[in-house]
Design a protein that fits this description.
With 386 residues, the chain is of the alpha+beta class. It is built from 13 helices and ten strands.
């Protein structure tokens, strides 16, 4: 296959690059470059700027605020956002829930929710995992019983990313306790301001608040917020997880972080020598460069060739597994280069690097979310060995 951009694709990349350079606020770019995660207001502000061009949800139909971009154009856009660096569009809204609504939702649900998801007027989080129900997602116990025009929800979710920032949650709940595990689950949209919802923070190893426990105590959810058929929510979940896993290669993120690591190595001295003068470190940079390029080509093959797409889910598992390993390797390199200073939480106007060691700690979670590395290896083994 031809791995060179066409003239039209080159022009689109230049268009995106110019747009980002002109419209991305400098303070947001600087925070991310130094290793800080985007704040909620950063993501909201930037997503609304992108949404002016339909680039907040670039693969969606135009009638819902998208740009109907092809696979290669979407890849170019994401690569430029990562390399800026800029906040990405909110993944739960755009990559996960939006496509589920377009496939399984009612016209009324699509008309109401999709424009709000694209413009980030509503921030959704994902209510899947529960205590004891992580990789075995179908063993979940949060239950919903039908009472008239409402479902009454009781139970608990855990590891709920950004629930403390969110307005709504899309959640898997058990609506038939007698059915086989996958057949008694429904997919609900729940307003987190509803009485009976309690959110408690979980502070992770990096010292930050990304995760939460979410409790439901007799929470009333209108039947109109059921997506798809009752007891058929597992179909929604499988569709959603397939979209989630194909977006975790993150080639542009790997490149941007490796470029920042190289900048640190070129400007930091160990006695009379720059860190980059070490042959061992230069060899490590060269190896990571080559592995990122290999991942990029693999990603292109998956997105642009019919034979690769037919290999789903095994091909998606390759992208997820190798992409995560590279992200973690580069985060570890940045933590080593930063040394003790990488533990500091510096003011935003400090010219030094951000909290790179805590960011390394947080990178370890990438082996878990979106399907653990062990699960991806099982999928590959079944595909390759039969």
């Amino acid at each position: 296959m031809d791995l060179n951009l066409s003239p039209a694709q080159e022009a689109f990349r230049d268009e995106v690059r110019t747009f980002v350079q002109q419209r991305l606020p400098h303070d947001i770019r600087q925070r991310l470059r130094l290793g800080h995660p985007p704040r909620k207001q950063d993501t909201v502000a930037w997503q609304r700027i992108l949404n002016e061009r339909g680039w907040a949800a670039p693969h969606w139909p135009r009638r819902y605020g998208g740009a109907e971009l092809g696979q290669m154009e979407r890849l170019i856009l994401m690569d430029e956002l990562y390399r800026a660096p800029a906040p990405l569009p909110q993944v739960f809204n755009v990559t996960m829930l939006g496509p589920v609504l377009m496939k399984f939702g009612t016209p009324e649900q699509c008309d109401f929710f999709l424009p709000k998801l694209a413009n980030l007027d509503l921030w959704f989080c994902q209510g899947f995992s529960e205590p004891g129900s992580g990789s075995d997602l179908a063993s979940l116990r949060t239950a919903a019983r039908r009472e008239g025009d409402d479902y009454i929800v009781n139970g608990q979710k855990i590891w709920t990313t950004t629930a403390h920032m969110a307005d709504w949650v899309f959640a898997l709940v058990r609506t038939d306790s007698q059915a086989r595990k996958q057949e008694g689950i429904s997919f609900l949209l729940i307003d987190l301001k509803t009485p009976g919802v309690t959110i408690r923070p979980i502070v992770s190893l990096d010292g930050d608040h990304h995760l939460n426990e979410v409790f439901f105590d007799e929470v009333r959810v209108p039947v109109g917020h059921l997506v798809g058929e009752e007891n058929k929510g597992w179909n929604c979940a499988k569709f959603l997880l397939g979209n989630e896993r194909t977006g975790i290669a993150n080639v542009g993120l790997c490149r941007e972080r490796l470029d920042f690591a190289r900048e640190i190595a070129e400007t930091t001295r160990d006695g009379h020598h720059r860190l980059i003068d070490s042959p061992q470190l230069r060899s490590e940079f060269a190896t990571l460069d080559a592995e990122i390029r290999a991942l990029e080509i693999t990603n292109w093959r998956f997105l642009l060739t019919d034979s690769a797409r037919e290999a789903l889910p095994s091909f998606a598992s390759v992208l997820k597994l190798k992409g995560v390993e590279l992200q973690q390797d580069i985060a570890a390199l940045l933590a080593r280069l930063a040394g003790p200073a990488g533990l500091e939480r510096r003011p935003l106007d400090d010219p030094g690097a951000g909290p790179l060691v805590p960011r390394y700690f947080y990178s370890r979670a990438a082996s878990i979310y979106g399907g653990t590395s062990e699960v991806q290896k099982d999928i590959l083994a079944k595909t390759l060995l039969g």
